[in-house]
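step=encode ok
step=design start
structure_in=
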């Protein structure tokens, strides 16, 4: 098990399913896709729509593409018009 990242701060959280431990399963609040007080993730950093997260339950670290805003996979609109 990894230690918590030095950037882990309870004040910066995200509600994303952990792909490693799936600790949210069986939680009625999470199953309703609402913000649960127990199953949040540390938001270590973000770049555009890419989040860098750590699970406080199993300490797994991963990147999550939200698809919101300036997604990494989208082309620049100005270059499309040329």
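sequence_out=
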């Amino acid at each position: 098990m990894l230690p918590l990242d030095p950037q882990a701060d309870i004040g910066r959280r995200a509600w994303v399913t952990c792909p490693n431990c799936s600790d949210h399963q069986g939680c009625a609040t999470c199953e309703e896709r609402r913000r649960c007080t127990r199953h949040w993730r540390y938001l270590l950093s973000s770049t555009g729509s890419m989040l860098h997260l750590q699970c406080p339950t199993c300490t797994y670290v991963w990147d999550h593409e939200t698809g919101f805003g300036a997604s990494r996979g989208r082309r620049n609109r100005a270059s499309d018009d040329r």
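step=design ok
step=annotate ok -> The chain has two helices and four strands.
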